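Hi R.,

Here are the chain sequences for the assembly we discussed:
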Amino acid sequence: MFLRVESLTKHFGGLSAISEVNFELSEGDMLGVMGPNGAGKTTLINLLSGFLMPDEGNIFLGGENLVGLKPHRIVQKGIARTFQQVRKFSNLTVFENLKVACKVEGASEKDLFPGSTEKRILEILKFVNLYRKRDVVSTSLPFDDLKRLEIGRALATSPVLLMLDEPVSGLTLEETDGFIDLIRKINSYGVTIIVIEHVMRALMNISRRIIVLDGGRKISEGTPKEVSRDQKVIEVYLGEMAERYA
Amino acid sequence: MEIVMASLVAFLFLVPFLTRDRYLLHILILSNVMAILAVSWNLVAGYLGQLNLAHAIFYGLGAYASGYAFKLFRLPPLIGIFASGVVAIIAALVVGIPCFRLKGHYFAIATLASSQIFYAATGALSKITGGEEGISGIKPLLKSLIANYYLFLILMIATVFTIYMILRSRLGLIIRSVREDELLSEASGLDTMKYKILALCISAFIAGIIGSVNCYYQSIVTPDTLSISLTFGIVAMVIVGGFGTLVGPVIGAYLLTFIAEYLYFILQFRLIIFSLLIIFIILFSPKGFLDLIVRGMESIFGPKMEAAKMELGEDDVSES
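And here is the predicted structure of the full complex:
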Protein backbone atom coordinates (compact mmCIF):
# COMPACT_ATOMS: atom_id res chain seq x y z
CA MET A 1 0.00 0.00 0.00
CA PHE A 2 1.32 3.47 -0.94
CA LEU A 3 0.00 5.38 2.10
CA ARG A 4 -1.35 3.76 5.24
CA VAL A 5 -2.76 5.79 8.10
CA GLU A 6 -3.27 3.80 11.29
CA SER A 7 -5.24 4.88 14.36
CA LEU A 8 -4.29 8.52 13.90
CA THR A 9 -5.27 10.54 16.98
CA LYS A 10 -4.76 14.15 17.96
CA HIS A 11 -6.17 16.01 20.96
CA PHE A 12 -6.03 19.73 21.67
CA GLY A 13 -6.48 19.86 25.43
CA GLY A 14 -9.78 18.15 26.07
CA LEU A 15 -10.90 18.42 22.45
CA SER A 16 -10.48 15.42 20.23
CA ALA A 17 -9.52 16.85 16.82
CA ILE A 18 -8.75 13.51 15.16
CA SER A 19 -9.66 10.21 16.73
CA GLU A 20 -8.59 6.73 15.63
CA VAL A 21 -8.65 7.58 11.93
CA ASN A 22 -7.58 4.77 9.59
CA PHE A 23 -7.39 4.73 5.81
CA GLU A 24 -5.22 3.50 2.97
CA LEU A 25 -4.30 4.89 -0.41
CA SER A 26 -2.92 3.19 -3.49
CA GLU A 27 -0.46 4.94 -5.77
CA GLY A 28 -2.21 7.28 -8.19
CA ASP A 29 -5.40 7.33 -6.12
CA MET A 30 -7.55 10.43 -5.66
CA LEU A 31 -9.08 10.66 -2.20
CA GLY A 32 -11.61 13.26 -1.13
CA VAL A 33 -12.02 14.28 2.50
CA MET A 34 -15.27 15.88 3.54
CA GLY A 35 -17.10 16.83 6.67
CA PRO A 36 -18.62 19.80 8.47
CA ASN A 37 -16.50 22.65 9.86
CA GLY A 38 -14.43 21.46 12.80
CA ALA A 39 -14.58 17.84 11.64
CA GLY A 40 -10.78 17.60 11.67
CA LYS A 41 -10.04 17.76 7.93
CA THR A 42 -7.28 20.37 8.08
CA THR A 43 -5.89 18.77 11.25
CA LEU A 44 -5.59 15.55 9.26
CA ILE A 45 -3.52 17.35 6.59
CA ASN A 46 -1.43 19.05 9.27
CA LEU A 47 -0.69 15.64 10.79
CA LEU A 48 0.17 14.05 7.45
CA SER A 49 2.47 16.94 6.53
CA GLY A 50 4.29 17.02 9.88
CA PHE A 51 3.00 20.43 10.99
CA LEU A 52 1.33 18.66 13.91
CA MET A 53 2.59 15.65 15.80
CA PRO A 54 -0.03 12.93 16.42
CA ASP A 55 -0.69 11.79 19.98
CA GLU A 56 -1.10 8.25 18.71
CA GLY A 57 -1.01 6.38 15.44
CA ASN A 58 1.24 5.87 12.46
CA ILE A 59 1.58 7.26 8.95
CA PHE A 60 3.35 4.91 6.55
CA LEU A 61 4.48 6.13 3.14
CA GLY A 62 5.82 3.21 1.11
CA GLY A 63 6.50 1.33 4.33
CA GLU A 64 8.33 4.15 6.11
CA ASN A 65 6.75 5.67 9.20
CA LEU A 66 6.66 9.46 8.86
CA VAL A 67 5.59 10.23 12.42
CA GLY A 68 8.14 12.48 14.11
CA LEU A 69 9.63 13.84 10.89
CA LYS A 70 9.77 17.60 10.47
CA PRO A 71 7.66 19.18 7.71
CA HIS A 72 10.62 19.78 5.36
CA ARG A 73 11.71 16.13 5.72
CA ILE A 74 8.19 15.01 4.83
CA VAL A 75 8.29 17.23 1.74
CA GLN A 76 11.60 15.60 0.84
CA LYS A 77 9.90 12.21 1.15
CA GLY A 78 7.48 13.37 -1.54
CA ILE A 79 4.46 14.76 0.29
CA ALA A 80 3.49 18.32 -0.62
CA ARG A 81 0.54 20.39 0.49
CA THR A 82 -1.32 23.62 -0.09
CA PHE A 83 -3.06 25.70 2.57
CA GLN A 84 -6.68 26.61 3.20
CA GLN A 85 -5.74 30.29 3.47
CA VAL A 86 -3.55 30.90 0.44
CA ARG A 87 0.09 31.35 1.42
CA LYS A 88 2.74 32.91 -0.77
CA PHE A 89 6.13 34.59 -0.56
CA SER A 90 4.55 38.00 -1.04
CA ASN A 91 7.56 40.02 -2.17
CA LEU A 92 9.00 37.35 -4.44
CA THR A 93 8.04 36.95 -8.08
CA VAL A 94 6.00 34.00 -9.29
CA PHE A 95 9.20 32.44 -10.68
CA GLU A 96 11.04 32.94 -7.37
CA ASN A 97 8.13 31.46 -5.40
CA LEU A 98 8.65 28.22 -7.30
CA LYS A 99 12.42 28.44 -7.21
CA VAL A 100 12.36 28.40 -3.40
CA ALA A 101 10.67 25.02 -3.55
CA CYS A 102 12.84 23.58 -6.32
CA LYS A 103 15.93 21.42 -5.85
CA VAL A 104 14.48 19.66 -2.85
CA GLU A 105 17.14 17.28 -1.61
CA GLY A 106 16.09 13.68 -2.03
CA ALA A 107 13.16 14.54 -4.29
CA SER A 108 11.54 11.80 -6.33
CA GLU A 109 13.51 10.64 -9.32
CA LYS A 110 10.27 10.05 -11.18
CA ASP A 111 9.91 13.78 -11.56
CA LEU A 112 6.90 15.16 -13.32
CA PHE A 113 8.97 17.97 -14.77
CA PRO A 114 12.54 16.84 -15.41
CA GLY A 115 15.42 19.09 -16.38
CA SER A 116 17.38 21.98 -14.97
CA THR A 117 15.88 24.13 -12.22
CA GLU A 118 14.96 26.92 -14.61
CA LYS A 119 13.50 24.55 -17.19
CA ARG A 120 11.47 22.74 -14.53
CA ILE A 121 10.07 25.99 -13.15
CA LEU A 122 9.07 27.25 -16.57
CA GLU A 123 7.41 23.92 -17.40
CA ILE A 124 5.48 23.98 -14.13
CA LEU A 125 4.43 27.58 -14.76
CA LYS A 126 3.10 26.58 -18.18
CA PHE A 127 1.33 23.63 -16.58
CA VAL A 128 -0.47 25.78 -13.99
CA ASN A 129 -1.02 28.56 -16.53
CA LEU A 130 1.17 31.18 -14.88
CA TYR A 131 3.96 31.28 -17.45
CA ARG A 132 3.07 34.76 -18.67
CA LYS A 133 3.05 36.08 -15.11
CA ARG A 134 6.39 34.56 -14.11
CA ASP A 135 7.96 37.96 -13.37
CA VAL A 136 4.98 39.38 -11.50
CA VAL A 137 5.45 39.91 -7.76
CA SER A 138 3.09 37.42 -6.18
CA THR A 139 1.33 39.93 -3.96
CA SER A 140 -0.22 41.52 -7.06
CA LEU A 141 -1.75 38.28 -8.37
CA PRO A 142 -5.54 37.82 -8.43
CA PHE A 143 -7.03 35.17 -6.14
CA ASP A 144 -7.32 32.31 -8.63
CA ASP A 145 -3.72 32.85 -9.77
CA LEU A 146 -2.60 32.68 -6.14
CA LYS A 147 -4.31 29.31 -5.90
CA ARG A 148 -2.48 28.21 -9.06
CA LEU A 149 0.77 29.53 -7.60
CA GLU A 150 0.26 27.38 -4.48
CA ILE A 151 -0.24 24.30 -6.62
CA GLY A 152 2.78 25.24 -8.75
CA ARG A 153 4.95 25.67 -5.67
CA ALA A 154 3.81 22.31 -4.35
CA LEU A 155 4.57 20.67 -7.72
CA ALA A 156 8.05 22.21 -7.68
CA THR A 157 8.90 19.98 -4.71
CA SER A 158 8.39 16.91 -6.97
CA PRO A 159 5.62 15.32 -4.91
CA VAL A 160 4.36 11.77 -5.14
CA LEU A 161 1.45 12.71 -2.87
CA LEU A 162 -0.21 16.12 -3.13
CA MET A 163 -2.62 17.32 -0.45
CA LEU A 164 -4.93 20.17 -1.43
CA ASP A 165 -6.79 22.03 1.30
CA GLU A 166 -9.91 23.56 -0.21
CA PRO A 167 -8.36 24.28 -3.62
CA VAL A 168 -11.52 25.75 -5.19
CA SER A 169 -13.04 27.62 -2.27
CA GLY A 170 -13.76 31.22 -3.19
CA LEU A 171 -13.51 30.58 -6.93
CA THR A 172 -16.19 31.25 -9.54
CA LEU A 173 -17.93 28.37 -11.29
CA GLU A 174 -15.76 28.78 -14.37
CA GLU A 175 -12.56 28.99 -12.34
CA THR A 176 -13.63 25.91 -10.38
CA ASP A 177 -13.98 23.92 -13.60
CA GLY A 178 -10.47 24.99 -14.59
CA PHE A 179 -9.14 23.76 -11.27
CA ILE A 180 -10.97 20.44 -11.52
CA ASP A 181 -9.26 19.91 -14.89
CA LEU A 182 -5.89 20.91 -13.45
CA ILE A 183 -6.18 18.54 -10.48
CA ARG A 184 -7.24 15.68 -12.77
CA LYS A 185 -4.30 16.43 -15.03
CA ILE A 186 -1.85 16.29 -12.10
CA ASN A 187 -3.38 12.97 -11.04
CA SER A 188 -3.12 11.63 -14.58
CA TYR A 189 0.66 12.05 -14.32
CA GLY A 190 0.65 9.53 -11.47
CA VAL A 191 0.60 11.93 -8.51
CA THR A 192 -1.59 10.62 -5.70
CA ILE A 193 -3.97 13.30 -4.44
CA ILE A 194 -5.84 13.97 -1.22
CA VAL A 195 -8.29 16.83 -1.50
CA ILE A 196 -10.34 18.54 1.18
CA GLU A 197 -13.26 20.50 -0.20
CA HIS A 198 -16.58 21.98 0.83
CA VAL A 199 -17.59 22.59 -2.77
CA MET A 200 -19.43 19.31 -3.31
CA ARG A 201 -19.60 19.60 -7.08
CA ALA A 202 -15.82 19.68 -7.22
CA LEU A 203 -15.21 17.01 -4.60
CA MET A 204 -17.70 14.55 -6.09
CA ASN A 205 -16.25 15.16 -9.56
CA ILE A 206 -12.62 14.77 -8.60
CA SER A 207 -12.58 11.98 -6.02
CA ARG A 208 -12.52 8.28 -6.70
CA ARG A 209 -12.99 7.59 -3.02
CA ILE A 210 -14.12 9.79 -0.17
CA ILE A 211 -13.73 9.62 3.57
CA VAL A 212 -16.11 11.58 5.74
CA LEU A 213 -15.05 13.01 9.08
CA ASP A 214 -17.25 14.26 11.87
CA GLY A 215 -16.01 15.34 15.29
CA GLY A 216 -12.57 13.96 14.45
CA ARG A 217 -13.89 10.46 13.66
CA LYS A 218 -14.19 8.76 10.30
CA ILE A 219 -17.90 8.08 9.89
CA SER A 220 -17.96 6.86 6.31
CA GLU A 221 -15.75 5.76 3.43
CA GLY A 222 -16.51 4.76 -0.12
CA THR A 223 -17.09 6.01 -3.64
CA PRO A 224 -18.81 9.41 -4.01
CA LYS A 225 -22.11 7.62 -4.69
CA GLU A 226 -21.73 5.35 -1.67
CA VAL A 227 -21.01 8.14 0.80
CA SER A 228 -23.77 10.34 -0.56
CA ARG A 229 -26.24 7.53 0.17
CA ASP A 230 -24.86 6.90 3.64
CA GLN A 231 -27.50 7.94 6.18
CA LYS A 232 -24.89 9.15 8.71
CA VAL A 233 -23.29 11.43 6.11
CA ILE A 234 -26.68 12.78 5.07
CA GLU A 235 -27.52 13.56 8.68
CA VAL A 236 -24.30 15.32 9.69
CA TYR A 237 -23.29 16.99 6.46
CA LEU A 238 -24.98 16.55 3.11
CA GLY A 239 -28.66 16.96 4.03
CA GLU A 240 -30.73 17.81 0.98
CA MET A 241 -27.61 18.00 -1.20
CA ALA A 242 -27.28 14.20 -1.00
CA GLU A 243 -29.95 13.62 -3.65
CA ARG A 244 -27.85 15.41 -6.27
CA TYR A 245 -24.95 12.97 -5.93
CA ALA A 246 -26.69 9.72 -4.98
CA MET B 1 22.31 55.52 -9.09
CA GLU B 2 25.14 53.09 -9.85
CA ILE B 3 27.13 56.09 -11.04
CA VAL B 4 26.42 57.95 -7.78
CA MET B 5 27.54 54.95 -5.71
CA ALA B 6 30.66 54.43 -7.83
CA SER B 7 31.49 58.15 -7.48
CA LEU B 8 31.12 57.96 -3.71
CA VAL B 9 33.40 54.93 -3.52
CA ALA B 10 35.93 56.65 -5.80
CA PHE B 11 35.76 59.72 -3.56
CA LEU B 12 36.42 57.57 -0.47
CA PHE B 13 39.51 56.16 -2.21
CA LEU B 14 40.70 59.71 -2.88
CA VAL B 15 40.17 61.06 0.65
CA PRO B 16 43.79 60.44 1.83
CA PHE B 17 44.98 62.51 -1.15
CA LEU B 18 42.61 65.34 -0.27
CA THR B 19 43.28 65.62 3.45
CA ARG B 20 45.92 64.72 5.99
CA ASP B 21 43.52 65.24 8.90
CA ARG B 22 44.35 62.17 11.01
CA TYR B 23 41.21 62.56 13.11
CA LEU B 24 38.99 62.57 10.02
CA LEU B 25 40.73 59.46 8.65
CA HIS B 26 40.26 57.76 12.02
CA ILE B 27 36.53 58.60 12.03
CA LEU B 28 36.23 57.22 8.50
CA ILE B 29 37.91 54.01 9.66
CA LEU B 30 35.42 53.76 12.54
CA SER B 31 32.59 54.44 10.08
CA ASN B 32 33.76 51.52 7.99
CA VAL B 33 33.93 49.26 11.04
CA MET B 34 30.36 50.20 11.95
CA ALA B 35 29.24 49.89 8.31
CA ILE B 36 30.59 46.32 8.18
CA LEU B 37 28.81 45.49 11.43
CA ALA B 38 25.58 47.09 10.20
CA VAL B 39 25.65 45.33 6.81
CA SER B 40 26.40 41.94 8.40
CA TRP B 41 23.70 42.43 11.07
CA ASN B 42 21.23 43.41 8.35
CA LEU B 43 21.65 40.00 6.68
CA VAL B 44 19.96 38.35 9.67
CA ALA B 45 17.68 41.16 10.83
CA GLY B 46 16.73 42.81 7.55
CA TYR B 47 16.77 39.95 5.04
CA LEU B 48 16.15 36.89 7.24
CA GLY B 49 13.72 38.82 9.46
CA GLN B 50 15.23 37.70 12.78
CA LEU B 51 15.93 40.52 15.24
CA ASN B 52 19.28 39.36 16.56
CA LEU B 53 20.37 41.50 19.52
CA ALA B 54 23.57 39.58 20.15
CA HIS B 55 25.67 40.90 17.28
CA ALA B 56 28.17 42.60 19.60
CA ILE B 57 29.07 39.17 21.01
CA PHE B 58 30.50 38.05 17.67
CA TYR B 59 32.40 41.29 17.19
CA GLY B 60 33.71 41.30 20.77
CA LEU B 61 34.70 37.65 20.84
CA GLY B 62 36.47 38.12 17.52
CA ALA B 63 38.43 40.99 19.05
CA TYR B 64 39.26 39.01 22.21
CA ALA B 65 40.30 35.98 20.14
CA SER B 66 42.85 38.13 18.30
CA GLY B 67 43.98 39.70 21.57
CA TYR B 68 44.70 36.25 22.97
CA ALA B 69 46.22 35.03 19.73
CA PHE B 70 48.78 37.80 20.04
CA LYS B 71 49.25 38.06 23.81
CA LEU B 72 49.28 34.38 24.76
CA PHE B 73 50.45 32.60 21.64
CA ARG B 74 52.19 35.32 19.62
CA LEU B 75 50.37 34.02 16.55
CA PRO B 76 50.73 35.98 13.29
CA PRO B 77 47.84 38.41 12.65
CA LEU B 78 46.45 36.43 9.71
CA ILE B 79 46.02 33.37 11.91
CA GLY B 80 44.56 35.57 14.64
CA ILE B 81 42.03 37.01 12.18
CA PHE B 82 41.05 33.56 10.93
CA ALA B 83 40.76 32.29 14.51
CA SER B 84 38.46 35.22 15.31
CA GLY B 85 36.16 34.25 12.48
CA VAL B 86 36.04 30.66 13.74
CA VAL B 87 35.39 31.79 17.33
CA ALA B 88 32.54 34.01 16.09
CA ILE B 89 31.00 31.07 14.21
CA ILE B 90 31.19 28.90 17.34
CA ALA B 91 29.51 31.71 19.31
CA ALA B 92 26.83 31.94 16.60
CA LEU B 93 26.13 28.23 16.99
CA VAL B 94 26.00 28.53 20.78
CA VAL B 95 23.59 31.47 20.60
CA GLY B 96 21.68 30.49 17.46
CA ILE B 97 20.79 26.84 18.09
CA PRO B 98 18.78 27.48 21.28
CA CYS B 99 17.53 30.98 20.39
CA PHE B 100 16.21 30.06 16.94
CA ARG B 101 13.82 27.66 18.63
CA LEU B 102 11.98 30.83 19.62
CA LYS B 103 10.09 33.13 17.28
CA GLY B 104 9.64 36.88 16.92
CA HIS B 105 10.01 38.96 20.06
CA TYR B 106 10.98 35.92 22.10
CA PHE B 107 13.95 35.34 19.82
CA ALA B 108 15.00 38.99 20.19
CA ILE B 109 14.76 38.83 23.98
CA ALA B 110 16.70 35.55 24.12
CA THR B 111 19.54 37.01 22.03
CA LEU B 112 19.52 40.13 24.21
CA ALA B 113 19.88 37.93 27.30
CA SER B 114 22.69 35.94 25.60
CA SER B 115 24.47 39.18 24.89
CA GLN B 116 24.27 40.19 28.54
CA ILE B 117 25.60 36.79 29.65
CA PHE B 118 28.71 37.18 27.49
CA TYR B 119 29.19 40.79 28.59
CA ALA B 120 28.85 39.87 32.28
CA ALA B 121 31.31 37.02 31.76
CA THR B 122 34.04 39.47 30.75
CA GLY B 123 33.71 41.04 34.21
CA ALA B 124 33.29 37.77 36.09
CA LEU B 125 36.30 36.19 34.36
CA SER B 126 38.48 39.27 34.75
CA LYS B 127 41.63 37.21 35.35
CA ILE B 128 41.27 35.81 31.84
CA THR B 129 39.69 38.77 30.09
CA GLY B 130 41.64 41.51 31.79
CA GLY B 131 38.44 42.95 33.30
CA GLU B 132 37.70 46.60 32.57
CA GLU B 133 41.25 47.11 31.30
CA GLY B 134 40.86 44.44 28.66
CA ILE B 135 43.88 43.29 26.68
CA SER B 136 46.26 45.98 25.50
CA GLY B 137 49.59 46.28 23.73
CA ILE B 138 48.52 44.29 20.70
CA LYS B 139 50.92 44.83 17.82
CA PRO B 140 49.18 46.65 14.95
CA LEU B 141 48.64 44.85 11.69
CA LEU B 142 49.56 47.95 9.70
CA LYS B 143 51.47 50.90 11.11
CA SER B 144 50.41 53.65 8.73
CA LEU B 145 47.04 55.32 9.28
CA ILE B 146 46.52 55.64 5.54
CA ALA B 147 47.23 51.93 5.00
CA ASN B 148 44.72 51.16 7.75
CA TYR B 149 42.23 53.51 6.10
CA TYR B 150 42.46 51.60 2.82
CA LEU B 151 42.34 48.24 4.58
CA PHE B 152 39.05 49.08 6.31
CA LEU B 153 37.60 50.68 3.20
CA ILE B 154 38.39 47.58 1.13
CA LEU B 155 36.96 45.35 3.87
CA MET B 156 33.75 47.40 3.88
CA ILE B 157 33.39 47.16 0.09
CA ALA B 158 34.21 43.44 0.20
CA THR B 159 31.53 42.92 2.86
CA VAL B 160 28.87 44.74 0.85
CA PHE B 161 29.88 42.76 -2.26
CA THR B 162 29.83 39.44 -0.35
CA ILE B 163 26.35 40.11 1.04
CA TYR B 164 25.21 41.20 -2.42
CA MET B 165 26.46 37.94 -3.94
CA ILE B 166 24.84 35.89 -1.16
CA LEU B 167 21.53 37.65 -1.69
CA ARG B 168 21.70 37.00 -5.44
CA SER B 169 22.31 33.30 -4.88
CA ARG B 170 19.82 30.55 -4.06
CA LEU B 171 20.82 30.95 -0.42
CA GLY B 172 19.74 34.59 -0.61
CA LEU B 173 16.41 33.59 -2.08
CA ILE B 174 15.90 31.10 0.75
CA ILE B 175 16.87 33.72 3.34
CA ARG B 176 14.24 36.09 1.94
CA SER B 177 11.65 33.32 1.74
CA VAL B 178 12.12 32.55 5.44
CA ARG B 179 11.46 36.19 6.23
CA GLU B 180 8.38 36.20 4.01
CA ASP B 181 6.80 33.06 5.45
CA GLU B 182 8.73 30.56 7.54
CA LEU B 183 5.93 28.01 7.61
CA LEU B 184 5.58 28.10 3.84
CA SER B 185 9.35 27.69 3.51
CA GLU B 186 9.10 24.49 5.58
CA ALA B 187 6.21 23.37 3.38
CA SER B 188 8.48 23.98 0.39
CA GLY B 189 10.99 21.47 1.74
CA LEU B 190 13.43 23.88 3.35
CA ASP B 191 15.10 23.15 6.66
CA THR B 192 14.55 26.69 7.90
CA MET B 193 16.50 26.10 11.13
CA LYS B 194 19.56 25.12 9.09
CA TYR B 195 19.35 28.21 6.92
CA LYS B 196 18.73 30.55 9.86
CA ILE B 197 21.82 29.22 11.60
CA LEU B 198 23.83 29.42 8.38
CA ALA B 199 22.86 33.07 7.90
CA LEU B 200 23.73 33.85 11.52
CA CYS B 201 27.12 32.12 11.12
CA ILE B 202 27.91 34.17 8.00
CA SER B 203 26.86 37.36 9.78
CA ALA B 204 28.87 36.41 12.89
CA PHE B 205 31.94 35.44 10.84
CA ILE B 206 32.04 38.89 9.25
CA ALA B 207 31.55 40.58 12.64
CA GLY B 208 34.28 38.41 14.19
CA ILE B 209 36.73 39.24 11.40
CA ILE B 210 36.14 42.99 11.68
CA GLY B 211 36.37 42.72 15.49
CA SER B 212 39.77 41.14 14.99
CA VAL B 213 41.07 43.63 12.42
CA ASN B 214 39.84 46.52 14.55
CA CYS B 215 41.56 44.99 17.58
CA TYR B 216 44.88 45.07 15.68
CA TYR B 217 44.17 48.64 14.58
CA GLN B 218 43.27 49.90 18.08
CA SER B 219 45.94 47.70 19.77
CA ILE B 220 43.47 47.08 22.56
CA VAL B 221 40.30 45.14 23.26
CA THR B 222 37.95 46.04 26.12
CA PRO B 223 34.58 44.70 27.37
CA ASP B 224 32.87 47.56 25.52
CA THR B 225 33.26 45.52 22.34
CA LEU B 226 30.69 43.06 23.76
CA SER B 227 28.34 45.71 25.10
CA ILE B 228 24.65 45.71 24.22
CA SER B 229 24.93 49.43 23.54
CA LEU B 230 27.11 48.55 20.55
CA THR B 231 24.35 46.30 19.20
CA PHE B 232 21.77 49.06 19.76
CA GLY B 233 24.08 51.45 17.90
CA ILE B 234 24.14 49.01 14.96
CA VAL B 235 20.34 48.68 15.07
CA ALA B 236 20.01 52.48 15.00
CA MET B 237 22.36 52.72 12.01
CA VAL B 238 20.39 50.15 10.04
CA ILE B 239 17.05 51.78 10.88
CA VAL B 240 18.36 55.21 9.92
CA GLY B 241 20.05 53.93 6.76
CA GLY B 242 17.40 51.53 5.51
CA PHE B 243 16.29 48.22 6.95
CA GLY B 244 16.59 45.29 4.54
CA THR B 245 18.54 47.28 1.95
CA LEU B 246 22.12 46.72 0.90
CA VAL B 247 23.60 50.20 0.93
CA GLY B 248 21.31 51.78 3.56
CA PRO B 249 23.22 50.40 6.58
CA VAL B 250 26.48 51.84 5.20
CA ILE B 251 24.89 55.29 4.92
CA GLY B 252 23.40 54.94 8.42
CA ALA B 253 26.77 53.87 9.83
CA TYR B 254 28.63 56.81 8.29
CA LEU B 255 25.95 59.29 9.31
CA LEU B 256 25.63 58.23 12.95
CA THR B 257 29.36 57.67 13.47
CA PHE B 258 30.08 61.20 12.24
CA ILE B 259 27.28 62.69 14.34
CA ALA B 260 28.51 60.81 17.41
CA GLU B 261 32.13 61.86 16.95
CA TYR B 262 31.71 65.46 15.79
CA LEU B 263 29.07 66.24 18.38
CA TYR B 264 31.19 64.80 21.16
CA PHE B 265 31.69 68.29 22.60
CA ILE B 266 28.01 68.53 23.54
CA LEU B 267 28.30 65.27 25.49
CA GLN B 268 24.93 63.89 26.54
CA PHE B 269 23.02 66.22 24.19
CA ARG B 270 24.23 64.19 21.25
CA LEU B 271 22.10 61.29 22.52
CA ILE B 272 19.08 63.58 22.25
CA ILE B 273 20.05 64.46 18.68
CA PHE B 274 20.55 60.76 17.94
CA SER B 275 17.13 59.90 19.29
CA LEU B 276 15.42 62.77 17.47
CA LEU B 277 17.03 61.69 14.20
CA ILE B 278 15.78 58.13 14.65
CA ILE B 279 12.26 59.37 15.47
CA PHE B 280 12.36 61.68 12.43
CA ILE B 281 13.42 58.82 10.14
CA ILE B 282 10.81 56.42 11.51
CA LEU B 283 8.06 59.05 11.15
CA PHE B 284 8.91 60.53 7.79
CA SER B 285 10.90 57.83 6.01
CA PRO B 286 10.34 54.43 7.62
CA LYS B 287 12.38 52.78 4.88
CA GLY B 288 15.38 54.76 6.03
CA PHE B 289 17.54 57.69 5.06
CA LEU B 290 18.48 55.99 1.80
CA ASP B 291 14.84 56.01 0.71
CA LEU B 292 14.64 59.69 1.64
CA ILE B 293 17.63 60.41 -0.60
CA VAL B 294 16.18 58.38 -3.47
CA ARG B 295 12.80 60.10 -3.15
CA GLY B 296 14.53 63.48 -3.06
CA MET B 297 16.48 62.65 -6.21
CA GLU B 298 13.33 61.28 -7.79
CA SER B 299 11.60 64.59 -7.35
CA ILE B 300 14.56 66.29 -9.04
CA PHE B 301 15.37 63.81 -11.81
CA GLY B 302 11.92 62.27 -12.29
CA PRO B 303 11.15 58.80 -13.58
CA LYS B 304 14.79 57.97 -14.31
CA MET B 305 15.09 57.31 -10.61
CA GLU B 306 12.57 54.45 -10.73
CA ALA B 307 15.31 52.06 -11.80
CA ALA B 308 17.59 53.36 -9.08
CA LYS B 309 14.88 52.75 -6.51
CA MET B 310 14.72 49.16 -7.58
CA GLU B 311 18.47 48.86 -7.34
CA LEU B 312 18.60 50.06 -3.77
CA GLY B 313 15.43 48.50 -2.46
CA GLU B 314 14.72 44.94 -1.47
CA ASP B 315 14.57 43.87 -5.10
CA ASP B 316 18.13 44.92 -5.74
CA VAL B 317 19.27 41.36 -5.31
CA SER B 318 16.75 39.51 -7.42
CA GLU B 319 18.29 37.06 -9.78
CA SER B 320 17.72 37.86 -13.39
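The interface with chain A takes residues 170, 173-174, 176-177, 180-181, 183-192, 314-315, 318-319 of chain B (CB under 8 Å). The longest strand of chain B covers residues 135-136.

Let me know if anything looks off.

Best,
T.
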